[in-house]
Amino acid sequence: EVWTNGSISPEEAISLSAQILIEYLKLFTEIDDTYAEVEILVEKEEEKKDKILEMSIEELELSVRASNGLKRA
C-alpha cells in the first residue's frame, strides 16, 4: 500500500522510484575501466592518514591543556 500527498498518484510514485533505483543500480552493472581510478583515490587517502599520524603534538594546534596532557602520557 502506497500513500502520497496527492501531488502524484501512488502508481506514479512507484514508477518514478523504480526508475530512480534502476539508474542508481546501473552504476554497478556498467562498471568499466573508468572506475579503475578509484584505487588511486584510496591510496591517496592512506597517504593523508600517514602524514597526519606522523605529525608532532605541537603541529596539531591543540589547546594548551590537551597538548600538555598528551605530552605527559
From TrEMBL:
The keyword Transcription applies. GO terms for cellular component: DNA-directed RNA polymerase complex. One of its GO terms (molecular function) is DNA-directed RNA polymerase activity. The keyword tRNA processing does not apply. Gene3D superfamilies: 5' to 3' exonuclease, C-terminal subdomain (1.10.150.20), RNA polymerase, RBP11-like subunit (3.30.1360.10). Keywords: DNA-directed RNA polymerase, Transcription. It comes from the Bacteria. It holds the Pfam family RNA_pol_A_CTD. Signal peptide: none annotated. Residues 44-73 form the RNA polymerase alpha subunit C-terminal domain. InterPro entries: RBP11-like (IPR036603), RNAP_asu_C (IPR011260). One of its GO terms (biological process) is DNA-templated transcription. This is DNA-directed RNA polymerase subunit alpha. It comes from Syntrophomonas wolfei. The lineage of its organism: Bacteria, Bacillati, Bacillota, Clostridia, Eubacteriales.
